[in-house]
Amino acid sequence: MKTWIVTGGAGFIGCNFVRAAIEATDRRIVVLDKLTYAGSLESLRDVERNASERYEFVHGDIADREAVRALVERTGPQAIVNFAAESHVDRSIDSPGEFIETNIRGTFELLEAARALQQRRRERGDDSARDEFRFLHVSTDEVFGSLGADGAFTESTPYAPNSPYSASKASADHLVRAYHHTFGLPTLVTNCSNNYGPFQFPEKLIPVMLLNALEGRELPIYGDGANVRDWLHVEDHCGAILRVLEGGAPGSSYNIGGNEERTNLEVVDTLCAVLEELRPAAENPALRQAGHDRYSDLKRFVADRPGHDRRYAIDASKIRRELGWSPRHDFTSGLRHTVRWYLENQEWCRSVQDPSARRRIGLGDAVAATASSSAAGGSR
Known about the structure:
Elements: E1 3-7, H1 12-24, E2 28-33, H2 45-50, E3 55-59, H3 65-75, E4 79-82, H4 89-94, H5 96-124, H6 127-132, E5 134-140, H7 164-183, E6 187-192, E7 194-196, H8 205-214, E8 219-222, E9 228-233, H9 234-247, E10 252-256, E11 261-263, H10 264-278, H11 285-289, E12 299-302, H12 317-323, H13 331-344, H14 346-352, H15 365-368
Parallel strand pairs: 1-2, 1-4, 2-3, 4-5, 5-6, 6-10, 7-9, 8-12
Antiparallel strand pairs: 9-11
Helix pairs in contact: 1-9, 3-5, 5-7, 8-10, 10-13
């Protein structure tokens, strides 16, 4: 059975991709994950239960050279799909070193292991396995920096990262490109817009606003709430990655977007409206106890974070044109699906959060000292 290694497969996008890959292909999926705060085996319990013969979990760090090379040598994968990353902008402001270690050094170790695998196949004359192999690196639209009121990022947009997070991802993208052009490694890079959907760790914009609202807590919004993001349902993102793996040209990059631009304030307002539909405020004792009649009453604006990009937008015409991909979810129906999932999976929400810690939704102690809860601005 042919194997794909999926790094970061216990995280938000990774666990959704594992499900999509098992359903859409006959590949054996080996997940490598460090299980940091944002990764949980609870997000893969159903996979372990229903597809155990095609699924293996390995606890490990992509920056651990010996562990990565041993895994690649043992499994001889036909693809490595790299989701593993530190991905929260606010955390990168607090602790940039962790982002350098995982996002840059970790990607380097994966590339080196893949290069060694391909060299062994070349020496053995195993041309079919060598030619079939793909290294797909999952990146972000944040590497392109901030847009003005018009335009959208294309695959040829110059990189201009503005946070330690986006700079570390940009560095990794450049490494991946270099390994194709220097060593002939068949690499692919995808740059996606903001994802939302099931299993997203509760510190990103949509899940944290949803859970705060259910608990009658404030909904803190950075600045004036007018920062714009293009929103993409995670299932559409996973479908696009599968399409790139199947038909993408080695050495290429593909932008993946939902063509669903919204301001952060619009996202929160839509979320409150959907929540009112599915869990009316009048039936929520936590909201009444907080002295409010509507979820929207919980909104408040807080100081903006440093280097907060004003607008992102993705031009996904290349992947539509070359690979025939397009998203299936519009934002409103996708958000309704997401809210319903969280309402039906409260036990998962409790299991992945440390009950002794406050929910982290923005900058650390500096913001917490001046606000009862910190601010949410973006989502990955």
